[in-house]
Queue: 4 jobs
Job 1
Amino acid sequence: MRLSLAFGLFLAATPALTTPALADVEAVLDTHILPGTAAFAEAAQALETSAAADCRPEHVQPAWNAAMDAWMGIGHLRLGPQEQAALTIAFWPDSRNSGRRTLARVIESEDPLGTDAEDFAQVSAAARGLYALETMLYDPQFSGYAADSYECRLVQVMTEDLAEQAGDLDGAWRRKFAPELRHAGEPDNALFLSEAEAERALFTQLHGGVEFNADQRLGQVLGTPGRPVPARAETWRSGRSLRNLTLSMEALHRMARALAEGPVPAVDEAFDAVAYFAEGIEDPAFQDVTDPAAHVRLESLQGQIRMVGDALSLAIGEAMGIAPGFNALDGD
């Protein structure tokens, strides 16, 4: 039923696939990227303040969730200052559990690096940022610490480190990279030699974010045929795997509208189909993926997300002069 409905929606939108779309770099910056980096910096600062007041998990968790929500609004951006910053803010996937193992070693030895935010920047990227904090706040083997413990101070340091990274990221966008995008093609712009280069860079981020949701946020947990991997679901300990996916798709939809200077029916229909299928997911942490029916629902959702990528390529990418078959993750 869901598959046939979504397919019908997509076909109904097909005549609009050739509707011209003009790329609006200014709108993407002013309504999507810069408000998003500011919101994330604000949320990360609130998280630091919360942990400083009371480091215990039950007190810090609401602020951590708010920071994660804010990151989902911009996490698909992997260009400019965010290309490297994302590694230490959001180290995921981590299929080898390197973050968890590193945190265990730091705690076992009571490493001095874990007591100072400036020194903590030397720690492995896997043990920094939002996902490492989830381990500290939700993993039963880590989250039972007392207010006067080494782990308490470690959590405070981790939130200080994250807040500093978020502030630096917002500042770097505003001071350097947003102006470069905004003034693409001007004589002194060595990064973007034409407006078309800036437009293509943003489209690449948009399309790549959709692919990441299909290939990683769902692909990791779906695993290989006959071998799903529940423990690879994103932030499954905090029960927000589906929330991450939903917020990310909503942010990508907003970015698509900004880039295309308004609604594009075929794209809107494809995003709406994803939202419809997401409502049918019963376990928000995707831990029921070993059940055949639940597995099919997740695979169907993945298929709908791939259709968003197709719609973007046809309805926006081609109008921007980007060839069919474009893949944001392989450099085509």
Job 2
Amino acid sequence: MNYRHHFHAGNFADVMKHVLLLQLLDRLNAKDKPYRYIDTHGGAGKYDLSEAPAQKSGEFLTGIHRLIQLSSAQKKQAPVAIQRYLDLVGQLREQDGKGAYPGSPWFAVQEMREQDKATIFEMQSEVFEYLRDNIRDKRVGLHERDAYEGLLAVIPPKEKRGLVMIDPPYEIERKDFPQLVELLQNAHKKWATGVFAVWYPIKDRAMIERFEKKMFKTGIRRQLICEICVWPDDTPVGLNGCGLLVINPPWQFAEDAKAALQWLLPHLKMTEHGAMTNVRWLVGE
């Protein structure tokens, strides 16, 4: 497998995913009852943008780097979740150096309360070693395991409420993500009340439309689409944008996501025309 997240860490898609993740966790934290955070593809947990992979791609320069460069006044105008996101990135940079950037498991651990638990999967052995070094917390269980079969073994969690973050290496997916659709169908059958957040790349709009049609036909209710495109859909650059499909989004999350993405767009877009954000219900109640 050629995929290594270190090349893409801190890019615009990471910014979008992590801001929305913080908004989801904030909504879960609004209730006293404990929850379980499950990350199907945890990666290394955190990254160093000063190292060769990130420097070679330079993707972080049009992502987190742009936001770090904003003035204090600009940052204070951002939605609360974006301010929190930048604060957490700043904390890790102070701790580990200016090249440090967190992965989803690190963000989640910072937001979890004492009563909450996490289960993190990572199937690549060399990456799992980094994850084990970077995420050390008694509330977290780390599993060197393929999440496409491992997820179904750990849900529903004993906490009965929680969030599954799914961000697979799309090199192993085909066309309209059939493996992903099957996983979501099976997982939802086992845990119909869980919150499932699925990140996906936008490179070919026709493929995304086929994916949406497949998800619509599953019969799963309450599917919310959140997208940001920094290039127009038909730009042949590789990654024009990204989306987060959220099943069972918490109360008011749609409004949170819309405000966050609208604030991010002018800071992350790569062109004056054609860039856009989109938050809409694929399937309602």
Job 3
Amino acid sequence: MSRTVYCEHLKKEADGLDFQLYPGDIGKRIFDNISKEAFGIWQKKQTMLINEKKLNMMQADDRKFLEEQMVAFLFEGKEPTIEGYVPPSK
């Protein structure tokens, strides 16, 4: 059975994540307030950011940077800056 959340990113009711994919308070906030669809969009952007900036997930600074980008994108609607990537216009 899928659960529905009001997605803060998409500003609509949508299917929620099946389980908490991110640890801690931020993970709980994402689980409670972000849809599967929005998290999927973020995961694509996250991959582009990791590749472009050559982030190393073993490095605390890189993880912190990525977490800040994730929160800004999911909850504040801020597009991460990815060189050569132009977000599709609405």
Job 4
Amino acid sequence: MNDWHPTTVAAVLPAAEDLTELVLDISGTPLVGHHRMPGQFVRLSLPEVGESMFAIASAPEPSGTRWEFLLKGSSLLSERLIALEPGARVYSKQPEGQGFPLPLARGRGLLLFAVGSGISPIRSVIESIRRERGAYGQVTLYFGARTPRAFAYEDELRHWEEAGIRVVRTVSQPGDSDWQGLTGYVQAHLNEEPVENTVAFLCGQSSMVKGVIEALCARGLPREAVHLNY
């Protein structure tokens, strides 16, 4: 495992319904400084279980020593990672993928779309924008979840809005909850969203991605202005 590096679990925290935040300490490893673009993925491994790719939810930092992830217990590896205690060892490779082309959004409007755990790499974008908010135009996040309790980073939404990031939330299965907000899929709520001089970043299920791309293109946004993080 020469290209694998041992990292340490710093925290495992509940994030939302069926979602858990995992924080890894990468200090003292060659991994520091290699997360360069929001939206990149990292291959994590537990030797006795296997390996898989996970999007980094924290913003890139040249000398940052912590990586944050949002996990859904949908695989044996995810379940084992969620069950770890602080101090446990997790092996990681260097970040992969092109991520989201954030420099293309400078001086322009930015539309962000995420569903469920797909908010993880989009959060990395938002945290990057907050550090240099004046470099970007209007930023709107369309955030969908299955139920009202399934929105990750609930306690951060206010900070995002205070930074001038508009947050539009919608629930696909409100059930008998007291949810009073929007319902349905994110692409159904674009309304009169302006798309001139705008780029869009998407992360979520393929059906959402397809629906959002179709809706944006129908509004006049060129397909080349729509970006995925893979």
